[in-house]
Amino acid sequence: MQKIIAPLLIASSLLIGSLPTLAQVPSRQPTSGQGCDCPYDVDAAGRQCGRRSAYSRPGGASPICYMEAAPQNTPVQIQPTESAYDRYMRIGYDASRNRDYQTALINFRRALNERVGDRAATQAIANMEGAIANNSNSINTDFTWLSRQQVTTADLVGKSDFELDVLRNSIFARYGRRFDRADLQAYFDRQSWYEPRYSPSQFPNNLLTALEQRNVQLILNYQRNQ
């Protein structure tokens, strides 16, 4: 009898130990591209927020992320795990609805890597590539003002990630820099004023004036804070 009871006790203890504590149970569904309040939220690039979240930063905001801090009458719900494919597709669709076609394209391609040959991801990629091409044709191509006046927030508000990338990299393109990113290189190749001369690794950054360098940094800071 003792030989039977002992394994049962061990098995029951393992089962009890495997249950998540309230400190491990999320109090809500993860958000996507809406900021990094909780560690399990996902940023606009499809990455889990983790230690970058407000919850994880000492002295920062104190959002309720886990059941241990939730009101007592809050029902405990263990959410089903979302597959990587589903997560990338969801982020891609969210980004496309916000007309952030570049972020959408990145995540649809990640989804396709998870399920090679998937029709939905393949079609979504084709749609985003078409949207980016159409969008790039409508972007104002006169960037010479970036060499004459400082960028302000008003110049950047409302622009997509791709438009901001074009705006920032146009400063380098004016001096003949090539680009590793295929979409940027394709865009500048279509501009009559563009004369590529330098590879990205060989580009002499000292060609940029102090104002141009400042504008590059201002646009980059704006993008990072979005």
Describe the structure.
With 226 residues, the protein is mostly helical. The protein is built from 8 helices and no strands. The chain has helices at 2-18, 84-97, 101-114, 119-137, 153-156, 161-173, 182-189, 210-224. Helix 2 (84-97) runs antiparallel to helix 3, helix 3 runs antiparallel to helix 4 (119-137) and helix 6 (161-173) runs antiparallel to helix 8. The radius of gyration is 24 Å and the shape is globular. The termini are far apart.
Brief sketch in words of this structure:
The protein has helices at 2-18, 84-97, 101-114, 119-137, 153-156, 161-173, 182-189, 210-224.
Strand content: under 5%
Structural class: mainly alpha
SSE ordering: HHHHHHHH
State the distance separating the first and last CA atoms: 65 Å
Number of helices: 8
The whole-number mean of residue pLDDT values reads 80
Can you summarize the main beta sheet?
A: none
Helix content estimate:
40-55%
Uncertain runs? 1-17
Supply Rg: 24 Å
What order do the helices and strands come in, and which of them pair?
Elements: H1 2-18, H2 84-97, H3 101-114, H4 119-137, H5 153-156, H6 161-173, H7 182-189, H8 210-224
Helix pairs in contact: 2-3, 3-4, 6-8
Question: Top keywords for this entry?
Answer:
disordered N terminus, 226 residues, single chain, globular, 8 helices
